[in-house]
């Protein structure tokens, strides 16, 4: 199976003191992380959400357009998440797949039209299910 996912290098985020204090209590250090952040429905995939199909601007593909044709920031926000590479590796191990090979995008895409493609780095896995 080939899996493509946008991941973040684990070195892009440092754990705070609270995480280290929690780990000292016996829980151990986390393996990887998931970064959650507020985003807006304003990238190249925005018009594909069937929940708001009737609100799609036919020229831009954006949803949540206000009366004057601008993106309605109040109704377009949602929570996005990106996972770190170690998190994805741990998940793959957890579900019982074996990584046969992996390739990582070396740098962000310059002048990318979509926010989703520019906020992380793509990673491709060739996975094998032993079952």
Structure, briefly:
With 131 residues, the protein is an alpha+beta fold.
Model description:
With 131 residues, the chain is an alpha+beta fold. The chain has one domain. The protein is 22% helix and 30% strand. It has helices at residues 17-27, 73-76, 85-94, 115-118; strands spanning 2-8, 34-40, 77-84, 97-104, 121-129. The longest helix has 11 residues, at 17-27. The radius of gyration is 19 Å and the shape is extended. The mean pLDDT is 80.
What's the arrangement of secondary structure elements?
Elements: E1 2-8, H1 17-27, E2 34-40, H2 73-76, E3 77-84, H3 85-94, E4 97-104, H4 115-118, E5 121-129
Parallel strand pairs: 1-3
Antiparallel strand pairs: 1-5, 2-3, 4-5
Overall 3D shape: extended
Task: Count the domains.
Answer: 1
Detail the poorly predicted runs.
Answer: none
* Count of DSSP H/I helices: 4
* Radius of gyration, CA atoms, in whole angstroms: 19 Å
Q: How confident is the prediction overall: mean pLDDT?
A: 80
Give a quick account of the main beta sheet: strands, pairing sense, barrel closure. Answer: 5 strands, mixed
Order of H and E elements: EHEHEHEHE
Structural class: alpha+beta
Q: State the end-to-end CA separation.
A: 13 Å
- Strand tally is 5
Strand order of the largest sheet: 2-3-1-5-4
């Amino acid at each position: 199976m080939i899996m493509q996912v946008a991941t973040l290098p684990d070195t892009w985020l440092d754990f705070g003191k609270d995480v280290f204090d929690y780990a000292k209590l016996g829980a151990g250090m986390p393996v990887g992380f998931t970064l959650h952040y507020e985003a807006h429905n304003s990238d190249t995939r925005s018009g594909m959400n069937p929940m708001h199909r009737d609100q799609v601007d036919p020229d831009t593909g954006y949803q949540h357009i206000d009366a004057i044709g601008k993106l309605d920031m109040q109704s377009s926000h949602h929570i996005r998440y990106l996972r770190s590479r170690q998190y994805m590796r741990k998940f793959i191990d957890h579900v019982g797949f074996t990584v046969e090979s992996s390739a990582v995008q070396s740098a962000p895409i310059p002048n990318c039209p979509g926010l989703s493609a520019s906020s992380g780095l793509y990673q491709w896995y060739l996975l094998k299910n032993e079952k």
